[in-house]
Structures are given as C-alpha cells and as structure tokens.
Amino acid sequence: MIRALRTASTGMQAQQRQVETIANNIANVNTTGFKKNRLSFRSLLYQNYRKPGANVTKDNLDPSGMQIGTGAQIASSVKNHQQGDIIPTGGDLDVAINGEGFFAVDSPSGETYYTRDGALHKDATGTIVTADGFPISGGLKIPDGAQQISIGIDGNISYKVNGTQATGGQLTLHRFTNPAGLEAIGDNYYIETPSSGTASQVTPGEAGGALIKHKFLEQANVAVVDELIELIQAQRNYELNSRTIKVGDEMMQQVNQMIR
Q1: Which DSSP string do the residues of 25-53 spell out, in sequence order?
Q2: Does the pLDDT of residue 259 top 70, yes or no?
Q3: Cα separation of 61 and 49, whole Å?
Q4: Which residues contact 166 (CB under 8 A, 6 or more apart)?
Q5: Model confidence over 202-232: pLDDT tens digits?
Q6: DSSP state of 251
Q7: What are phi and psi of 27, to 5 degrees?
Q8: Helix, strand, coil: what percent of the chain each, to 5?
C-alpha cells in the first residue's frame, strides 16, 4: 500500500509542474515573441519481481515477466520555437522576424542577449534599443528629426533628414543549431549555452533565411484553446492520482480494522 501512495504522489507532483507550465504559457499570451514551454515525462525505475525470459519450468521461459513501476517524473522542459502570428502595428520601429533567428542585444554586463521581441525604440542619442534600453548590436542609430523611417526585408534602415535620403545601418539576425538549448532569462531574452551551439550571424533574406517585417510584431505562439485542453487533462490526471492515494489509504484502513 505504501508504494501505491508514493507512486501516486510522483504523478501529482508531475501534473503540478504541468499546470504551472501551462499557467506561464497562458500568462504570456500577449507577450511579444514569447515561445511556449512544453514538458515531457518519463517513468521512474521498475522493480523486477520476475525478469522477462526467466525460466518458468525447465523448458519454458516467462514471455513477459513481472515488473512494477514506481511512478513518473519530468524529463525536460522544452521551448517550442514555432513561428507566432505576425500582426501589423504601424510603429516606426516595430519589426517582426518572419522565420528563424534572433536579434542580438548588448546587455549592461557585456554579455550578448538574444530576443525575438521587435518592439524597438530610440534612446536620447538616437541609438536603437529594446524596451529595456539595451542597444541592438551593431550600434544602429537614427538621428533626431529623421522622417519616413523604413526598414527593408533585408534589415536595411533608411530615412530622410531635411529631405535627404540617408541610411542607418542594417539589422542582422543570429541563428543557432539548437534554439531549444537557449537559456531563457526573462524579459524576452535568451543567452547562449553549450547545448544551443554558437550563434551564427546571417543577413535577413539571404539563402532563404528569415525576413524582417517592418511595422509588424510577432505574437506569442500560444494557442489558448490548446492550453485550456491540456489544463483540463492535467487537472483530471491530478485528480486520478489523488484518487489512487485515497484508495490506498482506504485499503490500509481495512487491514487495520481486520487486526482489531
């Protein structure tokens, strides 16, 4: 009976983490460029009461054996980097990445951050920065008084100053062999890890690469209906595991009553 209680408790713990993950996905449904998380599970160790292939008689082998598992646990939490919907905003410095890639950001610590949040701004010096004021790598600037700002699909920035056409640099993208291996640090930023591989800089639109969409933003790739369905499933699984604990407790009560 004790094993059943402990086994069911591992299931409850796993489903609790599932609900927490779903809650975070739903909470970020309006976060620009957010990528949802998905948990994967695996079974815990099995106890072999009789191994498959063990001798039942001299000339006969047990075809399946008898193995009883000890529960479940979370194997991993994976970021789903599927493209989110791209919606028009009309913002002069709003850009969306249509395809794979990230913008590189110079953090105050000197470490490079990566983001798909294209809600960009100008600071007091005209430098193009994120919502946190961190400059986009490359030192891109747009001077005061610039008008008709345009950002091409290849990331080239152009504008007019006093009626004269000028350029302000080019937005570049960075790709990873395994983007799921990036470490999410909050505020829509990721950092490189040994699992993600080293960032490789690419020019938007080259060799079939991602394109830059000016005056658009990428929405979170969270489908609320799918999350609600998974939430219901997680709740039901949690209830079933709690029911298993209750049944195990009732069986132990019956044994105690027999002793009396």
Answers
A1: HHHTTTSTT---EEEEEEE--EEEEE-TT
A2: no
A3: 15
A4: 146, 158, 159, 160
A5: 999 887 779 999 999 999 999 999 999 999 9
A6: H
A7: -60, -30
A8: 25, 35, 40
Residue 96, C-beta contacts closer than 8 angstroms, at least 6 positions apart: 86, 118, 212, 213, 216, 217, 218
Domain regions of the chain by residue span: 2-81+222-259, 86-218
C-alpha–C-alpha distance, residues 211 and 155, integer Å: 8
Residues with Cβ within 8 Å of residue 187, at least 6 apart in sequence: 132
User: E-assigned strands of the chain?
Assistant: 37-43, 46-50, 66-69, 72-79, 86-88, 95-98, 103-106, 112-115, 121-122, 128-129, 147-151, 156-161, 164-170, 173-175, 183-186, 189-191, 200-202, 211-214, 216-218
User: Quick one: pLDDT band at residue 199, thresholds 50, 70, 90?
Assistant: very high
Q: What is the CA radius of gyration of the chain?
A: 27
Q: Which residues are within 8 A (CB) of 103 and not within 5 positions of it... i.e. 6 or more apart?
A: 97, 114, 115, 116, 117, 118, 136, 137, 171, 173, 174
List pLDDT tens digits, range 51-90: 777 777 777 777 777 888 889 999 999 999 999 999 999 9
38 has a pLDDT exceeding 90: yes
Tokens representing 182 are 């990036």
Q: Which residues, listed in sequence order, are joined to residue 201 by a DSSP beta bridge?
A: 174
* Torsion-angle region of 74 (φ positive above 0: left; ψ -120 to 50: alpha; else: beta): beta
Q: Name residue 218's beta-bridge partners.
A: 86
